[in-house]
Amino acid sequence: MIDLSHVTLTFPDGASRVTAIDDASLRVEAGSTAGVTGPSGSGKSSLLAVASTLITPDRGTVTIDGVETTDLSLTEKAELRRTKIGLVFQQSNLLGSLTAYEQLLVMNELTTDPKRRAERHATRERAAELLDAVGLAGDRDKRPAQLSGGQRQRVNIARALMHRPSVLIVDEPTSALDQERGGQIVDLLLRLTEENHTATILVTHDQRILPRLTSAHRMVDGRLRALSASDR
Ligand SMILES: Nc1ncnc2c1ncn2[C@@H]1O[C@H](COP(=O)(O)OP(=O)(O)OP(=O)(O)O)[C@@H](O)[C@H]1O
């Protein structure tokens, strides 16, 4: 579960400040998906940055699984992100030299934490299971250049779920895809959200996606408003 309550975020803008998020509240339960749409510059990316604890808001709280995060130290926030938050960005940021399977393992292989190194076997099983769940079991040894845009996005999604996050933050997952492949990625995200009990926040410009989500919200000038079923 993630609960953003009365969040306000401003950035310096010359002598004054620009308000990127203006008193926004959003609660997403485990297993459900909240969509956020809105014009360019309305504050959607800022909202995702606050929800993922990468930016601390000026005011308001961000509670993840019952833990209020805005007062945590930088180290505590980094640990929270490592254990609780999965990120999927619009641009695939896969490493060119690694296979799909290796992309999922790399974080765990790099760690010096002995406990996590000891979990290698379980990590490999989890990676295989997730590649199967995203429909890439037969493509696990392919590198990004050998995969289509939709397949690369599937690897991104699988990688974001490796550490069993309770919150999944997804930024424009279908923007680089045609309508059919975009629809398949949305289907996949909805199914994985249910199966993995994540609280998923999805930013999208694609209005067609909104009716399929648990809730939909529109951001305008930093203000977030819930859309009724008839508004979607
Ligand atoms: N690091 C920053 N420094 C200063 N101003 C910023 C910064 N990040 C965002 N802003 C401003 O905050 C406002 C919201 O920007 P944000 O990127 O969150 O919007 P957005 O809805 O995600 O836009 P887009 O759909 O184009 O990605 C804009 O006025 C933007 O110029």
TrEMBL record:
Annotated PANTHER family: ABC TRANSPORTER RELATED, IMPORT ATP-BINDING PROTEIN
GO CC annotations, alphabetized: plasma membrane
One GO MF term attached to the UniProt entry: transmembrane transporter activity
Keywords, ordered alphabetically: ATP-binding, Nucleotide-binding, Transport
Protein name as annotated: ABC transport system ATP-binding protein
ATP-binding is among the record's keywords: yes
InterPro entries the record matches: AAA+_ATPase, ABC_transporter-like_ATP-bd, ABC_transporter-like_CS, ABC_transpr_LolD-like, MacB-like_ATP-bd, P-loop_NTPase
Origin: domain of life: Bacteria
ABC transporter domain: residues covered: 2-232
